[in-house]
C-alpha cells in the first residue's frame, strides 16, 4: 500500500500531507489514535481525526483514491 499512497500523494500535488508512523517506535501515538490493525490510514485535520473516516487494510488503488477524494471533498 505504501508505494501506491506515496504515488497518489504526488499526483494530488500537495492537497494532502502524508505522514508515516513506525508502530513499534510510536506506541503512544498508536494508543492516542486507537490503531489496532496495520495498515490503518487515519485522516487528521487541525490535529483531530476526521470522524468515521479511517481506513483499515488495503482496498486496492481505485477504492483508496475514492476514499482520499471523499476526505478532500469534506474540507
TrEMBL record:
<protein>
    <submittedName>
        <fullName>Thioredoxin-like negative regulator of GroEL</fullName>
    </submittedName>
</protein>
<dbReference type="Pfam" id="PF00085">
    <property type="entry name" value="Thioredoxin"/>
</dbReference>
<dbReference type="InterPro" id="IPR013766">
    <property type="entry name" value="Thioredoxin_domain"/>
</dbReference>
<dbReference type="InterPro" id="IPR036249">
    <property type="entry name" value="Thioredoxin-like_sf"/>
</dbReference>
<feature type="domain" description="Thioredoxin">
    <location>
        <begin position="1"/>
        <end position="69"/>
    </location>
</feature>
Amino acid at each position: 500500500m505504501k508505494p501506491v499512497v506515496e504515488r497518489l500523494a504526488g499526483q494530488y500535488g500537495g492537497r494532502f500531507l502524508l505522514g508515516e508512523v513506525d508502530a513499534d517506535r510510536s506506541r503512544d501515538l498508536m494508543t492516542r489514535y486507537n490503531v489496532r490493525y496495520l495498515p490503518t490510514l487515519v485522516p487528521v485535520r487541525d490535529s483531530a481525526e476526521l470522524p468515521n473516516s479511517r481506513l483499515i487494510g488495503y482496498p486496492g488503488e481505485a477504492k483508496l483514491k475514492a476514499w482520499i477524494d471523499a476526505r478532500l471533498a469534506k474540507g
